[in-house]
């Protein structure tokens, strides 16, 4: 087997992870790390044995594949140039800031025949893999993704930084067109939204409620799904899956509370999640999801198969994110077109203390 020669473009924190993992994957040959920062690229090159270069363009013709882990605003130009040269690309999420740019990249990949994969790494979380068989036909989905402010990815807001993961997850599970979007968001620390809540209505009747915050004191990455067969909860942090499966007579709508005696009601009240709504929990062993993602990328290149998260998947997630951002911008805090709107719930000016009431 000929190992694809791969480079990592972007020597920041995430690029460093990709480079170190790529260096240890037998099916990949890490040859270079590219970054304008001499200090960053040299540090990662020293750890991995790869060549350090300032400009990724000098590698075209010398590599078969690349991981692009630069700031989002740089994705389009870099990925487009690599795809046009026939280089396979794994681009970190989000694929691009806009749907128009994402469409161009998908078209470029189709024209060149190169693999375009998008780094929605949550698809490789082992808890999701365990839950997947029970996540068919979701009717209601709730996603919460919150963390503290990392001072990274400041070129984008919470939708493209955090919520994009859950947008991709929801689209992959529902597989139906989005017909309506509602959203509102708040800017707290910068010029982009830091907190967002959104609701997606799908053509097949499914509803998804998404919440994301990067200014939260709580770390949470969870998915709750209500299907025609029961409930599935996934905690992506702890890799724990919780399933609630109603008894068959409950599913058939043959269970009637009013028909129970007082003793039967008391018994089921104490044993609700053992006998009536049967609850089970499973925690799966840790898996390096980023490494699994890179293995999937290598497999797609070598075999010619589609990666788990295609360029089209990444594009569709960006398309929905764009709709959410539009709704955030349209939100009127005062109920009128003349008042406050968008992510700025308060004006950018000193807040005056209310006048103290005279004694």
UniProtKB/TrEMBL annotation:
UniProt domain GFO/IDH/MocA-like oxidoreductase: residue ranges: 144-231
Major enzyme class: oxidoreductase
EC number: 1.1.1.292
GO molecular function: 1,5-anhydro-D-fructose reductase (1,5-anhydro-D-mannitol-forming) activity; nucleotide binding
InterPro entries in the cross-refs: Gfo/Idh/MocA-like_OxRdtase_N, Gfo/Idh/MocA_Oxidoreductases, GFO_IDH_MocA-like_dom, NAD(P)-bd_dom_sf
Presence of the UniProt keyword Oxidoreductase in the record: yes
Domain Gfo/Idh/MocA-like oxidoreductase N-terminal: 5-120
Region of interest: Disordered: 337-359
SUPFAM superfamilies xref list: Glyceraldehyde-3-phosphate dehydrogenase-like, C-terminal domain, NAD(P)-binding Rossmann-fold domains
One Pfam family this sequence matches: GFO_IDH_MocA
Tree of life domain: Bacteria
Keyword Oxidoreductase annotated: yes
Keyword annotations of the record: Oxidoreductase
PANTHER family, per the entry: BILIVERDIN REDUCTASE A (PTHR43377:SF1)
Protein name according to UniProt: Dehydrogenase
């Amino acid at each position: 087997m000929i190992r694809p020669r791969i480079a990592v473009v972007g020597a920041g924190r995430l690029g460093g992870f990709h480079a170190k993992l790529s260096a240890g994957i037998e099916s990949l040959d890490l040859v270079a790390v590219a970054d304008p920062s001499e200090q960053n690229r040299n540090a990662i090159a020293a750890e991995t044995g790869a060549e350090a270069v300032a400009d990724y363009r000098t590698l075209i013709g010398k590599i078969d594949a690349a991981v692009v882990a630069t700031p989002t605003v740089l994705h389009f130009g870099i990925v487009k140039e690599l795809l046009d040269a026939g280089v396979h690309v794994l681009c970190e999420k989000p694929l691009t800031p806009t749907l128009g740019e994402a469409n161009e990249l998908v078209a470029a990949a189709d024209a060149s025949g190169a693999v375009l994969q998008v780094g929605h790494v949550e698809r490789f979380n082992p808890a999701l893999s365990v839950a997947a068989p029970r996540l068919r036909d979701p009717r209601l989905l709730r996603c919460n993704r919150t963390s503290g402010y990392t001072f990274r990815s400041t070129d984008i807001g919470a939708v493209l930084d955090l919520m994009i993961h859950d947008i991709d997850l929801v689209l992959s599970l529902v597989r139906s067109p989005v017909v309506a979007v509602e959203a509102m968001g708040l800017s707290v620390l910068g010029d982009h939204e830091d907190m967002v809540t959104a609701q997606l209505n799908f053509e097949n009747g499914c509803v998804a409620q998404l919440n994301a915050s990067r200014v939260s004191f709580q770390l949470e990455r969870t998915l709750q799904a209500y299907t025609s067969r029961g409930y599935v909860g996934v905690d992506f942090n702890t890799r724990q899956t919780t399933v609630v499966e109603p008894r068959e007579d409950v599913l058939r709508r043959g269970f009637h509370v009013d028909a129970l005696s007082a003793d039967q009601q008391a018994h089921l009240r104490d044993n609700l999640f053992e006998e009536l709504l049967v609850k089970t929990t499973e925690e799966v062993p840790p898996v390096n999801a980023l490494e699994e993602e890179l293995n999937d990328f290598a497999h797609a290149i070598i075999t010619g198969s589609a990666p788990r998260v295609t360029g089209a998947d990444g594009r569709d997630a960006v398309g929905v994110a764009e709709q959410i951002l539009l709704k955030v911008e349209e939100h009127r805090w005062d109920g009128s077109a003349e008042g406050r709107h968008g992510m700025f719930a308060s004006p950018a000016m000193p807040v005056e203390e209310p006048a103290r009431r005279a004694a």
